[in-house]
Write a structure and sequence with these properties.
The protein is built from 30 helices and no strands. With 642 residues, it is mostly helical. Among the domains are: 116 residues, Serine Threonine Protein Phosphatase 5, Tetratricopeptide repeat (Alpha Horseshoe), CATH 1.25.40.10; 82 residues, Serine Threonine Protein Phosphatase 5, Tetratricopeptide repeat. Helix 1 packs antiparallel against helix 2, helix 16 packs antiparallel against helix 17 and helix 21 packs antiparallel against helix 22. The longest helix is centred in the middle third of the chain and has 22 residues. One of its GO terms (cellular component) is signal recognition particle, endoplasmic reticulum targeting. This is Signal recognition particle subunit SRP72.
Length: 642
């Protein structure tokens, strides 16, 4: 037809549709652009926008849709998809709501699924509280999207239950088709299992998450976006450990087409982790290159500059790192607080605690917070700068006074934080001998709560060292001992689990035993003495040696060792071992006799004059002769030594 009439509109439309059906989107778009005179936007707007959408020319697709004179249902469907890819979730939500309201066909379930996906994206990436759409979660896609929305809210346990339900529905749905294999089902479930592993990772169950991630990778799913996310999550689990595995996994994040499958925040997170991995693997130039690229894309983002500073610190360039952070803080005052906290940490690491305190005190939005006050006081105390520590307390208390005065009407009691700061300041001053300054703080506290006995006691204690008379006057305000007595069950306290002494419960006494107990209440029960164990070779007829408890050298009958005699009979080694004589040790003479165990107690029979030589002390045959030969050689031989 086109050979006969090259500008036939119907033939050109058919050709474009056939090319789209075959997936030849570029060729289809070329045909449309070549015949713009006959294929106007009114005629072929949907086909052109769809080709641009499939070629990931999302901005062009949006322009094509908006330029169409008539917004058909097909264009509205595509418009919703384009808005989702552009991450314009509010506009996308409105588009799908309009579609669901004004259309009635067999694609209603798909539109509801897309609507739930938009809500899940809002919850995850924009932290918007999702509204209840009232959708019946009859399909696994709807259950999955609902779980993603719950993850965005931090409801991890509920999200896990939804994912388990989605898995069950997915298996039921796919198992009904006889052509679907178990491998196909597992491939479809991969995205659900990936989300389950992510929840496990957020819950701190990293081993379980890692196992599930690796199972999904072994399936080799065709979704490059899913593989990239899983690889990135494994890298975050590995951190600075198992770097070789992380370097292998990072290749999955570089697959072709990944940038079209993931959101901007997902892609950004992957790039951050690549920069950190480069730092951990000591690829300094690569780390700087990646972090600089990230900073140019997102100038106000904190992470790129923090990664650069961390890399400089690894290179021992702390001063340069602090300068880089200071420059960023000056350019972006909104993010200055977090940057200055990092700068203070670097100064502390260098040992410059006073400079770190100066940086912390320059953070206006945090300098009066109780946590910051506590940190500054601790650091100044470490440097023994008590005046500066007290100044921090004073400024914080004054700030709370001014804040309360500007936000209260009439007389208003001090806030708990304000009172807590005054008390901590008083305790600190008392600890460091600033009693007069502490007294004013304690009086302020007592004035706020006259019934506070603890504060009154502290005040009296402080005045006793400065003004004893004033202390006496104040002591009259203390409650009497009768009112202070506590109703304590002593028996219950003594028998409690935490008591160091637990009184034993008395047993039931009857008859004579009761009388004996009353008469001899103070007599302690005698413990039965256990019989001592006698040695196995004990002979009751023989009187035991009275000096047997003394060492041999301290006994009266010890005569010392005789030197020079019976050298061949005396062994050098452990005591207590006994054997037969040297003739008994000759195996050739006793070959027919079976080996026997030594008898118990035989060690006691060995005396100092015995011919017995313990086996470990015997010298090998020929040893003395060898020694003599060596001595003879020495006498004859070499003068210069060996």
């Amino acid at each position: 037809v086109l050979q006969i009439s090259k500008d036939d509109v119907t033939a050109l439309q058919c050709k474009v549709v056939c090319l789209i059906q075959n997936g030849n989107f570029k060729e289809a778009l070329t045909v449309i652009n070549t015949h713009t005179k006959v294929l106007t936007s009114d005629v072929i707007a949907f086909e052109k926008a769809y080709c641009e959408y499939r070629l990931n020319r999302i901005e062009n697709a949006l322009k094509t849709i908006q330029s169409a004179s008539q917004q058909t249902d097909k264009l509205k469907e595509l418009y919703g998809q384009v808005l989702y890819r552009l991450e314009r979730y509010d506009d996308c939500l409105a588009a799908y709501r309009d579609l669901i309201r004004n259309s009635q066909d067999e694609y209603e379930e798909e539109r509801k699924t897309n609507l739930s996906a938009v809500v899940a994206a809002q919850s995850t990436w924009e932290k918007v509280m999702p509204e209840d759409l009232g959708l019946r979660e009859a399909t696994y896609e709807l259950c999955y999207n609902s779980a993603c929305a719950l993850i965005g809210q931090g409801k991890l346990n509920e999200a896990m239950k939804k994912l388990q339900k989605a898995e069950e529905l997915c298996r039921q749905s796919l198992s009904e088709d006889s052509d679907v294999t178990e491998e196909d089902i597992e491939a479809e479930l991969a995205i659900i299992h990936g989300q389950m592993a992510y929840i496990m990772q957020l819950q701190g169950r990293t081993e379980d998450a890692l196992q599930l991630y690796n199972q999904i990778i072994k399936l080799k799913p065709t979704d490059v976006g899913l593989l990239a996310v899983i690889a990135n999550n494994i890298i975050t689990i590995n951190k600075d450990q198992n770097v070789f595995d992380s370097k292998k996994k990072v290749k999955l994040t570089n697959a072709e087409g990944v940038e079209h499958k993931l959101s901007k925040k997902q892609l950004q997170a992957i790039e951050f982790n690549k920069a950190l991995l480069a730092m951990y693997t000591n690829q300094a130039d690569q780390c700087r290159k990646l972090s600089a690229s990230l900073q140019s894309q997102s100038p106000e983002h904190l992470l790129p500059v923090l990664i650069q500073a961390a890399q400089l610190c690894r290179e021992k360039q702390h001063a340069k790192a602090v300068g880089l952070l200071q420059e960023f803080a000056d350019q972006h005052p909104a993010n200055a607080a977090e940057i200055k906290l990092t700068m203070a940490q670097l100064k502390i690491a260098q040992g410059s605690v006073t400079k770190a305190c100066m940086i912390l005190r320059s953070i206006e939005e945090l300098q009066h917070k109780p946590g910051m006050v506590s940190a500054l006081v601790t650091m100044y105390s470490h440097e023994e700068d008590i005046d500066s520590a007290i100044e921090v307390f004073t400024q914080a208390i004054q700030w709370y006074q001014q804040f309360q005065a500007s936000h209260s009407r009439g007389t208003n009691p001090k806030s708990p934080v304000h009172l807590s700061l005054i008390r901590e300041a008083a305790n600190f001053k008392l600890k460091h001998g600033r009693k007069k300054e502490a007294i004013s703080d304690l009086e302020e506290l007592w004035k706020q709560n006259p019934k506070d006995v603890h504060t009154l006691a502290q005040l009296i204690s402080a005045y006793s060292l400065v003004d004893p008379e004033k202390a006496k006057v104040l002591s009259k305000h203390l409650p009497s001992s009768d009112t202070m007595s506590l109703k304590v069950d002593v028996d219950a306290l003594e028998n409690s689990h935490g008591a160091t002494y637990v009184r034993k419960k008395a047993g039931k006494l009857t008859g004579d035993n009761q009388q004996k107990e009353q008469g001899q209440g103070d007599v302690k029960k005698k413990k039965k003495k256990k019989k001592g164990k006698l040695p196995k070779n004990y002979d009751p007829k023989v009187t035991p040696d009275p000096e047997r408890w003394l060492p041999m050298r301290e006994r009266s009958y010890y005569r010392g060792r005789k030197k020079g005699k019976k050298k061949d009979q005396v062994g050098k080694g452990t005591q207590g071992s006994t054997t037969a004589g040297s003739s008994e040790l000759d195996a050739s003479k006793t070959a027919s006799s079976p080996p026997t165990s030594p008898r118990p107690g035989s060690a006691a029979a060995v005396s100092a004059t015995s011919n017995v030589i313990p086996p470990r002390h015997q010298k090998p045959a020929g040893a003395p002769a060898t020694k003599k030969k060596q001595q003879q050689k020495k006498k004859k031989g070499a003068k210069g030594g060996w």
